[in-house]
Design brief:
Helix content is 52%, strand content 16%. By secondary structure, it is of the alpha+beta class. The strands form 2 sheets. It has a 3-stranded mixed β-sheet with strand order 2-1-3, with helices on one face. It has a two-stranded antiparallel ribbon with strand order 4-5.
Length: 165
């Protein structure tokens, strides 16, 4: 990896440039950025333009900065354990993801996918899975604005069959 001295993640919002300085040690937690740095010819200042909303990018940057130090990588606890699913996350991760509305968490999933940040992707997906495990079908449909296009007669038959199983 080259000797980049300063690194900025940049996005454009309403045609305005929004910059987020980030340490190299944090940025390399993104496989996308790490690969970019490996193949980059620049040695001083690097700006990476991303197609991500500024609020999302700020949260992604906070996540990456938190995990730049090895000290923060080993502290784990369980947040999902119902129905045989068990995923481990640190207290910091649990607090981080609980601060956001589900729509924002979905945007974090997309950003984590685009930037190839497996830890953030898994955390955000676990938050959505947890919501789905803890809420009724009706609550999930309302939260995610899902409309049923099955005829009411068929829907009632399926619902009744599920109740009997």
């Amino acid at each position: 990896m080259n000797d980049v001295e300063s690194l900025k993640l940049v996005c454009y919002e309403n045609k305005d440039k929004v910059e987020f300085p980030i340490s190299k040690s944090a940025a390399i937690n993104s496989n996308f950025i790490s690969n970019y740095l490996d193949n980059c010819q620049m040695t001083k200042n690097l700006t990476i333009k991303l197609n991500v909303d500024s609020k999302i990018l700020k949260s992604v940057g906070n996540y990456l900065e938190h995990f730049k130090d090895e000290d923060n990588k080993g502290k784990r606890l369980h947040i999902l354990s119902e129905d045989g699913i068990s995923t481990q996350f640190s207290k910091w991760e649990v607090d981080f993801i609980r601060d956001y509305e589900l729509d924002f968490v979905i945007d974090l999933i997309n950003a984590a996918e685009e930037l190839d940040i497996p830890g953030l992707h898994n955390l955000a997906c676990a938050r959505i899975a947890e919501y789905m495990m803890l809420n009724s079908d009706e609550d999930i449909e309302k939260e995610f604005k899902i409309t049923c296009n099955i005829p009411e007669e068929d829907h009632n038959r399926i619902t009744e069959k599920q109740k009997n199983n």
